[in-house]
């Protein structure tokens, strides 16, 4: 989308020029009225006529110098006004096929990318010796195939420059090794969560009472959070959710709410002199999905249960019955009792399906590494706003798909909090640099976060190889919403044809003049001049962007793409100095 059509852009420039010349004429006339006197009166056009006669006549003897100078300058001014009128008339039809072009320095300034005083610190490119950084918080997409330079030229420079808190998805663990110490030295508190390491330096638990709303004081918010987590675990097979999926999510959300309820209850009723109270506190004070898993899987051969021929549903339903009885004794909220009761009373095939769904989705938490990395929460969400922090989320590249649900849960719960709690003045903005976004399952709050998150002081940069990775998870409609709400698009050498074609359509067409030559039977040549339209950047050209260069598209200026240098951190003294320090 462009704010002006190609024709109206020229018309606007012509209007501005005309206004400027008109103002100049008015000022000129006011000035000369005081200095030009002919026969005792101020007469500008007499001076113009006088100067014209002198020039035509070629006689300069006895010329009144003041009147002559004013007349000549007036003639020049009139010619400028006439020339502007001719230009304005011609310009409306000058480029009938489009006027897309690469951005100039003036265009880049209008995009708000050279405002160093208000720069956000997200580094989107470089021109000359100046870094390009938006002067406001906005979401973005980076289309970057492997080895294109996006980590060295976008992620690392942005991490070193951003003034607020950062959440960095670090699939290979390289960024944490490189950036942790410089960011600490810059005053940021650094957290490192490694989903594949049971001894992870820091950890994050989606059910922790630090980040989960209180069942006692904010029950409706706790319900919404439990439903979000259940939706992430169950997923959605089709375009619309069916009865089976709806009930599965409802039952799993009830289990999650009960685990959180037990955690809060054990803390509220803790009595160090009562052994039973101490035992309850030790077992329940930190709600965890592994514990929720064992609510159902106690004394059950899970591997056998998940096999297609397993017939031992009875044991699982007995566990559910015991859990329902325990919840009633604990005086759990009515919703928990009702949903667990409906699960227990459901037909065996439906109840069993929900159980196998739940157990298959949560058995990840049986892993020692995942249990260790999710043992508790090392921070609260508010900590990221109270002072600058950097959170690194690490996992082996080979496990990106299997561990993606943990990263997606992290984002889903963060988005829910960020949308509910607006950023206050003087609190830190938060930026997410989401590498390997294409390996994550669908995050249900993604589109809501993109439409409202920037106003709440939090943004995300989605880093994928091509548009197809987003479409495969969110569908065409979801992709359109994501693209619409991302104000910036970084494009490195792109090798997906459909993405190349879409980018060419986005950047628009330019008008080209072609010269044709023909020759008749007598050998006389004739020439013709024709205009036609062509893509500013041809489809195939998106795949030939050289390493060290990329193209930046800015919302509102899509037909003014910026052909940037990629500010590779190891070639930039301003970044190497921070890393060396």
General description of the model:
- With 581 residues, the chain is of the alpha/beta class.
- It has 21 helices and 13 strands.
- The strands form three sheets. It has a nine-stranded mixed β-sheet with strand order 5-6-4-7-8-3-9-12-13, sandwiched between helices.
- Helix 8 crosses helix 14 (348-362).
- The protein is elongated, with a radius of gyration of 34 Å.
- The protein starts with 5 loop residues before the first helix and ends with a helix.
- Residues 1-8 have low confidence and may be disordered.
Sequence-ordered SSE layout with sheet pairings:
Blueprint: H1 6-35, H2 44-57, H3 65-91, H4 105-110, E1 125-127, E2 130-132, E3 140-143, H5 150-161, E4 165-170, H6 174-185, E5 189-194, H7 219-234, H8 243-268, H9 275-284, H10 289-297, H11 302-305, H12 313-329, H13 334-345, H14 348-362, H15 368-373, H16 381-386, E6 389-394, H17 404-420, E7 430-434, H18 446-452, E8 458-464, H19 467-485, E9 488-491, H20 497-507, E10 509-519, E11 525-535, E12 549-554, E13 562-565, H21 573-580
Helix pairs in contact: 1-3, 2-3, 7-8, 7-17, 8-9, 8-13, 8-14, 10-14, 12-13, 17-18, 18-19
- Quaternary structure: single chain
Lateral arrangement of strands in the main beta sheet: 5-6-4-7-8-3-9-12-13
N- to C-terminal distance = 44 Å
Total E-strand runs: 13
**Count, helices:** 21
Mean pLDDT across all amino acids: 84
Shape: elongated
**Hey, roughly how much beta strand do the residues contain?**
5-15%
Helix content: 40-55%
As a whole number of angstroms, the C-alpha radius of gyration is 34 Å
């Amino acid at each position: 989308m462009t704010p002006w059509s190609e024709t109206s852009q020229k018309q606007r420039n012509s209007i501005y020029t005309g206004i400027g010349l008109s103002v100049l004429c008015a000022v000129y006339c006011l000035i000369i009225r005081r200095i030009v006197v002919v026969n005792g009166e101020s007469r500008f056009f007499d001076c113009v006529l006088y100067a014209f006669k002198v020039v035509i006549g070629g006689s300069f003897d006895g010329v009144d110098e003041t009147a002559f100078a004013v007349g000549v300058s007036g003639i020049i001014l009139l010619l400028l006004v006439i020339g502007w009128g001719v230009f304005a008339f011609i310009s409306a039809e000058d480029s009938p096929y489009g006027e897309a072009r690469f951005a100039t320095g003036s265009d880049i300034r209008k995009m708000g990318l050279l405002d160093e005083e208000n720069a956000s610190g997200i580094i989107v490119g470089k021109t000359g010796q100046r870094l390009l950084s938006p002067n406001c918080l906005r979401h973005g997409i980076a289309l970057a195939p492997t080895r294109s330079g996006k980590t060295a030229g976008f992620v690392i420079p942005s991490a070193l420059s951003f003034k607020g808190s950062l959440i960095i998805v670090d699939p290979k663990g390289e960024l944490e090794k490189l950036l942790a110490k410089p960011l600490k030295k810059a005053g940021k508190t650094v957290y490192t969560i490694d989903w594949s390491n049971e001894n992870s330096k820091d950890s994050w638990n989606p059910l922790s009472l630090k980040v989960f709303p209180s069942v006692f004081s904010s029950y409706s918010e706790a319900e919404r959070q439990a439903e979000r987590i259940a939706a992430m675990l169950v997923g959605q097979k089709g375009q619309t959710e069916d009865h089976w999926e709806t009930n599965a999510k409802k039952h799993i959300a009830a289990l999650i709410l009960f685990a959180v309820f037990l955690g809060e209850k054990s803390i509220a009723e803790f009595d160090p002199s009562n052994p039973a109270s101490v035992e309850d506190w030790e077992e329940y004070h930190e709600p965890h999905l592994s514990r929720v898993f064992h609510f159902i899987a106690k004394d059950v051969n899970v591997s056998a249960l998940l096999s297609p021929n397993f017939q031992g549903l009875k044991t699982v339903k007995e566990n559910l019955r015991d859990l329902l009885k325990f919840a009633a004794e604990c005086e759990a909220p009515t919703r928990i009792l009702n949903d667990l009761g409906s699960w227990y009373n459901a037909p065996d095939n439906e109840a069993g399906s929900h159980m196998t769904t739940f157990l298959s989705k949560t058995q990840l938490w049986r892993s020692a590494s995942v249990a260790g990395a999710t043992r508790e929460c090392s921070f609260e969400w508010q900590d990221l706003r109270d002072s600058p922090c950097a959170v690194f989320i690490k996992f082996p590249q080979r496990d990106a798909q299997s561990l993606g649900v943990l990263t997606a849960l992290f984002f889903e719960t963060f988005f829910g909090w960020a949308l509910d709690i607006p950023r206050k003045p003087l609190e830190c903005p938060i930026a997410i640099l989401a590498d390997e976004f294409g390996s994550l399952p669908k995050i249900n709050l993604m589109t809501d976060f993109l439409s409202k998150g920037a106003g709440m002081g939090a943004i995300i940069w989605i880093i994928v190889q091509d548009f197809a990775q987003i479409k495969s998870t969110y569908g065409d409609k979801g992709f359109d919403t994501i693209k619409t709400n991302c104000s910036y698009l970084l494009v490195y050498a792109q090798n997906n044809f459909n993405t190349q074609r879409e980018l060419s359509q986005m950047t628009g067409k330019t008008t080209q003049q072609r010269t044709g030559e023909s020759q008749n039977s007598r050998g006389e040549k004739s020439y013709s001049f024709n205009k036609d339209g062509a893509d500013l950047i041809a489809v195939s050209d998106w795949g030939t962007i050289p390493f060290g260069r990329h193209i930046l598209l800015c919302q509102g200026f899509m037909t003014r793409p910026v052909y940037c240098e990629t500010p590779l951190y190891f070639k930039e003294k301003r970044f190497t100095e921070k890393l060396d320090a």
